[in-house]
Structure formats: structure tokens, C-alpha cells
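Thread: "does anyone have the structure for this chain?"

Original post by V.I.:
We have the sequence but no experimental structure in hand. Need at least a predicted one for the grant figures.
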Amino acid sequence: MMIRPALLLAAALALAAPARANDSTAEIGAGGLIFLVNESVSMEHEELFVSPTEVRVDYRFLNTTDQELDFTVAFPMPDIDGNPFLPVSIPNPDDDNFLGFTVTVDGKPVAVNLQQRAFVAGIDITQTLGDAGVPSMPFAESTRKAIAALPQETLDAWIRQGILVKDTYDIGKGMEDHYEPYWTLKTTYYWDMTFPAGREVAVSHRYTPSLGGTAGLTFIEDGKLQGRQYQDYKARYCLDGDFAKSVAKFVTPEDPYGSGLTESRLSYILVTGRNWQGTIKSFRLTVDKGAPENLVSFCGEGVTKTGPTTFVMEKTDFWPERDLDILIVNRQPN
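Reply from O.Q.:
Generated one for you, C-alpha cells below.
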């Protein structure tokens, strides 16, 4: 999974005149962040760098009104699905700021607030977890310990409600039941910010991405690039013929599933760029695949290779139609 900010404007505290709205803006409400609309700030420039080890985002925003605007700015992270059968890599799962997220405004660090909500089938179970002393991060060691300490009646009830899933395996003591988180965690960072009238403001984010991945390749069946997963990948990552040929070189009769290769998957929410006033005036995306021997695929127009590991896409008056999904196939240099 990978990340993309939705830097979302929030309701202005005071405006001398009403402003037209075309923005997903954030208001702090009793039930969490409520996304509203506002069209008084334009995104003049976005510089996005995405790699397996770091995401950097640099913006320039312009308040196009003649009034100073005070907003709550929100940065939602991609959902984290608790699934013991499809775990994800979390850099610091026992830290509330599990991705090491930082933000600066005009070069000065800003303290951010954190909202985390847990859901099962669209139902908010954050309070249920909290009342039982269970943290909301599904992959935290503290969460596993808290679940292990729950009474059996609670475990049974949570299994029925879809909050947990039971798995039976041996960790050296014989076959035992283990109860694993099965909820979705939604995370949003937010902070208060002032946009001076008629002046650009520089906002920068940094964080360590959370990677999805597998040993071997999931889009190969019977020694060929085929099957439903391959079709899904073709649509999601825009796999083309050249990419398929490059992967096929490492799929042999002796190794029909490419077990010497691994996948890394990142996602980044781009479409929220449409929530500002007009288009993104200037947009530059750099994707770094991590190592020269790796393969990479993602959807984009006019992408050029700029280095042994980097690929760049530049747009003016950019109106993102889809989010960014990146597939990296890692292989050994030999």
C-alpha cells in the first residue's frame, strides 16, 4: 500500500464574502473529520517523489481571495486492513505515528493531530476496541497482547461480529487457536493552518511508506502471465508487453512461478488534487524503483526514464483521473 495525501481544506473560520466551493475540506466533528467543500485556495505546484523507502510531497498553495483564511488541513492515509493471511509492512506499528509522518509549512515544522478509527463492514468499532483496552492498529504487538488477554466470551462475540478471525497453528506448543484482528484502520493527520491573502504557502510532507508485497509473483499461473490476478494487475498497474517480456525471462520450467522474484506494491491517492480550486497548475511525479535491476510499472502519460532507478512524469493544468498504484518486481542482481 502506498500513500497519497489528500491535503483537504476545511471550513474557513471567517470570510467577508462567501466563496464558491469545489474542495474536500475537513471540519472536526463529534464523529470525526467531516469533509466539506471550499474553492478559495489553488494548488500551484505539486512535487511528488515515491520510492519503497520514502515519500516526499512538496506543494505550493495560493489563497486567491483578499482575505486571510484559517483552515483545518487534513491528510488521510490509505486504509490498513487487518488480515493475518495478507499482512502488510508497517514501519513502526506500535507507534501512533507509525509511518513517521512529518509536515512543514514555509519550512517550519508543524505539530499534527492524529485521528484513527477502526471499522468492520462499514461499522465504526473504535469505541468497542477502546472499551476492551485493545489498540486500533491491527499489526501492533500491543494489539496482539491485548487480544490474547480478552475473556473467551469476548473473543467468541468478536468472531461472530467479524472483528476477529480465528486461525489454528503450532508455534511449538502443539496446535492452538490464535485470534487475529480483522478490522480496517482509517488514519487521518490534521492541523490548523493560515493562508495569507494573495500569497503562496509552501507545505511539505515526509513519511516512510507501507509496502504490500509477496515472495514470488501472484500474477503468474501455470508458468505464464495469465489468470484473474494478471488481468487485475494489467488494469491497476498498466502492465504492458515490455514489462511482461521482462518478467517472463525469469519464469522457467524449473521455476514456473518466479519464486526468485518478489513484489512490492505502493498506492498513493492522487484524485484529491481535484478538490482544490481548478487544476493542479504544475505537477511533477518521480517514481524510484529502488535498484537498477528491479522492474516497475504504473499508469502514467509521457513518463520518461531520468536515471538508473527513476522515472518522471510532468503535467501542467493536471486533473488527476485516477490514484497512483505502483508495482515493483524485485530481483537479485545476478
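V.I.: this helps a lot. The radius of gyration is 22 Å.
O.Q.: and Residues 1-27 have pLDDT under 50 and may be disordered.
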